[in-house]
Amino acid sequence: MNAGAVMGLWELCFGDSKDYMSYYERWKLGRNRVFTTSDGDELISMLHLNPYEVSVFGCRDVVDYVVGVATHPDYRHRGHMRELLRRAAREARSRGKSWLFLMPADPAIYLPFDYRFFYTQERLSPVCEEVPERGSAPELAWRDWEELGGDARAEAVRFSNELLGENADIFAVRSEAYYEDLAAERRSGGGTLAFGFRGDEAAAEVSYFLEEGELSVTEILAAERGLADGYVAGLAARAEKAMILDARWSELSGEYFRKPIMMARILDVEAFIGMLRGARPCGAEFVLEDPFLPEQSGAYRAELGECCRAERIAGREGLPVWSPGDLAEWIFENLPLRTVLNEIV
Q1: 20 to 30 A from 43, CA-CA: which of 166, 238, 242, 343?
Q2: CA-based end-to-end distance of the chain
Q3: Which of 200, 198, 197 is nearest to 143 (CA)?
Q4: What CATH number labels 128-252?
Q5: From CA 336, how far away is CA 318, in angstroms rounded?
Q6: Rounded to whole angstroms, how far apart are CA atoms 156 and 206?
Q7: CATH number belonging to the domain at 267-340, selected among 3.30.230.10, 3.30.1050.10, 2.30.40.10, 3.40.50.300
């Protein structure tokens, strides 16, 4: 992989800042699987699989996040992206992965490839006219990640994983390496990652970008709803424009709205359904047709409930024909997932 060519195509297609691209090249590029297409010596198309440890109903596994899907403007609409999406799906399945996920710039691009939304954020455009003191909740002492010693970092990780384990079915598992990466990424966009402590115990987390007067609070975690609002209000009051991307732990006033944010693609029907829990009891028999992954095409019986499962069955006559996208829609309609994937890059 030619890192210079990859980052050159990234800059051409996405227009990110030099600081962000330096962060991505240093912290992400070497860990990712990068699929490319070239015309002679020129890189013309790419797709990155960014691995994250994700907890799904208490079971942890490394799941690939699709990012950096780009084609040189002179080579678009020739099927390069389709081929890279197919290659990535087949390669991920060959490694035992049962699904991929992504945050689409335009959902219409990925719908034909059977990606479907599974995570909708509750967002908030806050109204904060006053500027509270930093960490105005008197019981909290706020410190940036870089200021934390070893014991405090371990406590921050414990707090986040424990809170998410109690409040989410699917979330990115936190570790010191995860937060080191995240803090570097927030710095690349003029922001930071901060934790609020009560004595030696972590009780809240806030991460954000602040570029050209625009504040994006990417995540709030709090032991009690509203606990981090003073810290966030102080940031918002100083910004020209502010948005909280996931406001479930906030009680600030303003305009709340919902935005579908993450899409998933099923790679292995039996494995994917088998890891789910707690759905409204229902079942279906269907024929799956998957041109990307013909090895998972066939007739299935799927059952959702407290324990979910799917198995292949004999016979196809009279059964509805579903795509992987149809199956995903049926699953997510019957199993609304509590998801926290706010920090994925």
Answers
A1: 343
A2: 20
A3: 197
A4: 3.40.630.30
A5: 29
A6: 12
A7: 3.30.1050.10
128-252 shares its CATH topology with 267-340: no
Give yes or no for a contact between 150 and 290, defined as CB atoms under 8 angstroms apart: no
Contacts of 289 (CB under 8 A, 6+ apart): 297, 321, 322, 323
Cα separation of 173 and 181, whole Å? 13
Neighbours of 310 (CB within 10 A): 24
pTM: 0.92
Nearest alpha carbon to residue 202 among 146, 132, 136, 148 = 148
Per-residue pLDDT of the chain (345 residues; tens, 9 = 90+): 688 999 999 999 998 888 888 888 888 888 899 999 999 989 999 999 999 999 999 999 999 999 999 999 999 999 999 999 999 999 999 999 999 999 999 999 999 999 999 999 999 999 876 555 544 455 799 999 999 999 999 999 999 999 999 999 999 999 999 999 999 999 999 999 999 999 999 999 999 999 989 999 999 999 999 999 999 999 999 899 999 999 999 999 999 999 999 999 999 999 999 999 988 899 999 999 999 999 999 999 999 999 999 999 998 889 999 999 999 999 999 999 999 998 676
Q: Identify the CA nearest to 261 among candidates 246, 251, 249.
A: 246
DSSP letter at 320 equals P
Give the type of residue at 310.
A
CATH topology for the 3-97 domain: Aminopeptidase (3.40.630)
Query: Coil, strand, or helix at residue 297?
Result: coil
Map out the domains of the chain as residue ranges: 3-97, 128-252, 267-340
Q: Sign of dihedral through CA atoms 31, 37, 43, 44?
A: negative
User: Counting beta carbons within 10 angstroms of the beta carbon of residue 139, is it exposed (0 to 12), middle (13 to 18) or buried (19 or more)?
Assistant: exposed
How many CA atoms, within 13 angstroms, populate the side-chain half-sphere of residue 238? 12
Residue 74 sits at φ, ψ, to 5 deg, of -75, -10
